[in-house]
Write a structure and sequence with these properties.
The structure holds two protein chains of two kinds. By secondary structure, chain A is mainly α. Chain A has 15 helices and no strands. The chains are: A mainly alpha, B alpha/beta.
Chain lengths: ~350, ~525
């Protein structure tokens, strides 16, 4: 019997992702409609257009560059979550691993005046350590990784606020500008900025994130290491029976997941695009948005490349809404709704499978 | 005849219809496989109707269709002569169809009573009225000889009692059609006897029973008629009084089956497995599960650990294979001390057919080919120096094992293991474990849940293993298997080896006495 295309997993993932996006836009549209009916249609188009709101091509390219700058860290966070998820672990601690990554790379750049690759390495190690703590607790004390992850998110946040308090600007809570303190800590652009109307924030972070996604896809699907990790995720007992060291695998997975999230922060802060606010009292959403990107990407590292871009695209697009008509929080609200509905990919997939069986009756 | 009376009594209520349930020309397809191909089963009122078939023959699918878990593509179901559409289990319940599943659906920390009334509680002002329920349960319990204490907790009662709770659940809901899905698989011989009697009582009271089994002796004992399925096809229905075990097995397997495997006397050689004074802690209680056990297994012999489930056999195997740490004593394989060795190191010396194929034996969501290399994926044959899997080698290897061990599946090596029938999953594990190099084979209930055809094959494989010079340690709960296959029997009772028997010189009765703890001797290895 021939398998229908509707039963193909990859195809289902794509269809489900599109369904989620449409549903998210629809609900977002309804919210806009409720606040100000007259400009709702225009607003949703504005969000979707994002950088295309600029009529001139150079300007549009420049702002496409900005979207890409923020896509890279989001993709890295998504990969962190995706990688752990394949091993049966829900790395909600990615948000905290991102935070300590930010703290480590900024401290290395601003206080220790290190070059960019050392800063990057510091972020990687810090995130990795943060993930390892979760892994150790999980492997040896059977502490749920979600609980320890969330607690470490907050520990990380205040630790980093404290650490970076010494390298902040006098008059503001923001950390010093890397470009004025230690220019060699900025990630190299390799001339990539020229494609985006000399956008100096477009660095090697963007291609590196995409390469990482492909590398993770290869590791998971084609290597012995990936075989072991996925077996551990799918059936821990069978993995043990087969002589795999499931404790080591859990710790290693969370360490790698942590490292990915740590590097995510470096990919944002070492471009100089944003500064860390040492008074912030909530964990940055980047790590959490990574969860949505993971699910929207159909739990595939390759799919995550596109879903991360899309989520960043609408988040950036939200900032172009008319602030006279809509309150300034609206852009975050709309993208939050869409991101939230993006998590429904698995539900849509389930619904599709179910519908398919009913049809065949 | 009590049964005849029962039928008459029932007949008063519904004279016109002979059949309680009819499943006519049912066809159910899954991707790559036709699970039921034009199957017809007619269940008479007050009869015990056995449904016999090999693993993967489509028995479970057919019952799932009847119970509303699956929808058939073709065919109709009639209740009392009227066509019904069973779209989900609730509809089945409303029609008076009840099922005792192979794996019980009970809340462990609830009492028997709570489990029975769960979902159909009688309440007054939001408060449970348990007294009425208790009265009804006691009455039912007496009527059918079930003898269950309604206030006992599920976790404290035996498996047999738990099963009776499931039966009471059906009776409490006034179900008329009772489906038993391989009910004896989990019971001790004595409990099986009792269950048979209970089923006869139920039928005598006018209940219609569908009894899924592949144990021929049980069908011969308890059933009135038997319908046989083979590879999804309906083979026929026979009256039990006109048939024999041999005929039934021929119908089921499609060829003559040797119920007892022939073998030469064993020629034991060097000691392979040497266990000395091994103690393993229990996970479920503070007492040790295995208490200072010593024995040896030699090259060219099959040593069987017999015993009633839960007497430490599982933990004994866990200790040997490294799934649980050994508290005291030592284990040597071919002179090498492996008492505290990691699992991977032991795997090089021993093959292990695990007791629970879903928990340990397979990664159910991996493809068949990936499961075939579960114990060997790290060998140079299947992985490059850089750590990449050699997909082609894996595919070829899996195909060879599939061929050699006749593992049937919807899509060959890429089939997801979860979608395969239990028998074929087991064949895959056996193929994987026998094919790789080993000095010792530890086979734990290798034929559990399998049909006579598959059992015959597995017994042959075990004997061939022995004749090829392996040492075989077989753990089995089936008396027949213990007697037929082993060269030496060690009986375990409460974590100790209480007897060593020679299968040629002992009887099942004597073996039963040891298993029940009624007889003990000090065994020195």
């Amino acid at each position: 019997m021939k398998k229908s295309i509707f039963q193909n997993d990859a195809f289902q993932s794509i269809i489900a992702a599109i369904a989620c996006i449409v549903a998210g836009l629809l609900v977002g549209y309804l919210v806009l409609l409720a606040i100000h009916p007259a400009s709702a249609g225009e607003a949703i188009v504005t969000i979707l257009k994002n950088f295309l709101n600029y009529p001139s091509k150079p300007a549009a390219m420049k702002y496409l560059g900005n979207t890409l700058v923020k896509t890279a860290p989001l993709l890295m966070c998504a990969l962190s979550i995706n990688f752990c998820y394949k091993v049966g672990l829900f790395n909600i601690g990615a948000a905290g691993q991102y935070v300590v990554g930010a703290g480590a790379c900024l401290y290395a750049a601003l206080a220790l005046k290190m070059p960019w690759f050392v800063c990057l390495l510091c972020a990687l190690i810090a995130g990795g350590i943060w993930g390892t703590v979760v892994g150790l607790l999980k492997a040896y004390a059977n502490v749920n990784e979600v609980i320890s992850g969330i607690m470490l998110n907050w520990i990380g946040l205040y630790l980093v606020n404290m650490l970076l308090g010494g390298v902040k600007e006098q008059a503001s809570p923001y950390t010093l500008q890397i470009s004025s303190v230690n220019e060699k800590a900025l990630l190299p652009t390799l001339g990539l900025g020229t494609f985006f109307t000399n956008n100096k924030y477009v660095t090697i972070a963007v291609p590196l994130a995409v390469i990482t996604a492909i590398a993770i896809w290869i590791v998971l699907n084609f290597t012995k290491f990936g075989y072991e990790l996925r077996a551990t995720g799918l059936n821990k007992e069978a993995a043990r029976y087969a002589g795999m060291n499931e404790k080591r695998n859990i710790i290693l997975t969370l360490a790698i997941g942590g490292a990915l999230a740590g590097v995510a922060a470096a990919f944002l802060f070492l471009t100089g695009y944003e500064q860390w606010s040492t008074t912030q009292s909530s964990v940055p959403g980047m790590g959490f948005n990574g969860i949505a990107a993971t699910f929207l990407g159909g739990l595939s590292p390759l799919g995550t490349i596109f879903s991360s871009y899309f989520i960043q695209h609408i988040t950036s697009g939200g900032s172009y809404l008319d602030k006279n008509v809509y309150p300034s929080q609206i852009s975050d609200l709309i993208s939050a709704i869409i991101i939230y509905l993006c998590g429904f990919v698995l539900f849509f997939k389930y619904a599709m499978n179910r519908r398919y069986t009913i049809k065949r009756r | 005849m009590r049964r005849a009376q029962g039928k008459k009594k029932k007949g008063e209520r519904s004279l016109q219809e002979e059949y309680a349930i009819e499943m006519l020309n049912i066809t159910k397809r899954f991707p790559g496989i036709i699970a039921n191909d034009n199957v017809t089963i007619q269940l008479r009122r007050g009869e015990i109707h056995a449904l016999l078939g090999e693993n993967g023959a489509g028995k479970s699918t057919l019952m799932s269709v009847l119970f509303g878990l699956y929808q058939a593509e073709e065919g109709i179901i009639k209740k009392d002569g009227k066509e019904v559409h069973i779209t989900d289990p609730n509809v089945a319940n409303d029609l008076g169809i009840g099922m005792v599943h192979q794996h019980f659906k009970l809340v462990q920390c609830f009492t028997v009573l709570d489990n029975i009334i769960l979902g159909v509680e009688t309440t007054k002002n939001g408060l449970l009225l348990k007294d009425e329920a208790r009265k009804k349960i006691k009455a039912l319990s007496e009527k059918y000889g079930l003898m269950v204490d309604p206030d006992a907790k599920i976790e404290d009662i035996t498996v047999g009692m738990q099963q009776r709770t499931e039966i009471l659940k059906m009776l409490y809901r006034d179900n008329e059609i009772l489906i038993f899905d391989e009910p004896t698989a989990v019971l001790t011989p004595q409990e099986i006897e009792e269950l048979m009697q209970i089923m006869k009582n139920l039928a005598a009271e006018g209940k219609s029973i569908l009894f899924i089994s592949h144990k021929l002796n049980e069908i011969m004992e308890v059933a009135d008629r038997c319908s046989v399925l083979r590879r999804g096809k309906y083979i026929g229905t026979v009256d039990i009084k006109d048939t024999t075990q041999e005929e039934l097995s021929r119908m089921m397997v499609g060829r003559d089956v040797q119920l007892v495997v022939e073998k030469e006397p064993s020629v034991p050689k060097d000691v392979v497995l040497d266990v000395e004074n091994m103690t393993v802690a229990s996970r479920s209680h503070n007492n040790n599960a295995v208490k200072g056990v010593s024995f040896k297994v030699r090259q060219g012999e099959i040593v069987c650990i017999a015993g009633i489930d839960g007497n430490g056999q599982t933990e004994l195997v866990y200790g040997l294979t490294g799934l649980e740490p050994i508290k005291q004593g030592s284990v040597k394989i071919c002179g090498k001390d492996i008492t505290h060795a990691p699992i991977r190191e032991r795997s090089a010396l021993l093959s292990h057919i695990p007791e629970d194929r879903h928990k340990h034996g397979l990664v159910l969501d991996y493809s068949l080919e990936y499961n075939m290399v579960l114990q060997r994926y790290f060998e140079p044959e299947f992985v490059t120096g850089a750590g990449f899997l050699k997909k082609k080698s894996i595919r070829d290897y899996a195909n060879r094992l599939i061929e050699e061990y006749d593992v049937r599946s919807g899509q060959g090596p890429v089939t997801i293991a979860r979608s395969m029938s239990g028998g074929n999953q087991q064949k895959a594990i056996i193929g994987r474990e026998l094919d790789r190099e080993h000095k010792l084979l530890v086979a734990v209930q290798p034929t559990r849940g399998l049909d006579v055809g598959a059992i015959e094959n597995i017994h042959r494989e075990l004997i061939r293993e022995r004749d090829n010079g392996s040492a075989v340690l077989l753990v089995s709960l089936e008396l027949e298997e213990v007697m037929n296959v082993s060269d030496r029997i060690l009986v375990m009772y409460e974590g100790e080896i209480v007897g060593e028997l020679d299968p040629r010189k002992t009887t099942t009765e004597e073996l039963g006495l040891y298993m029940a703890g009624a007889r003990k001797e000090k065994v020195e290895a």
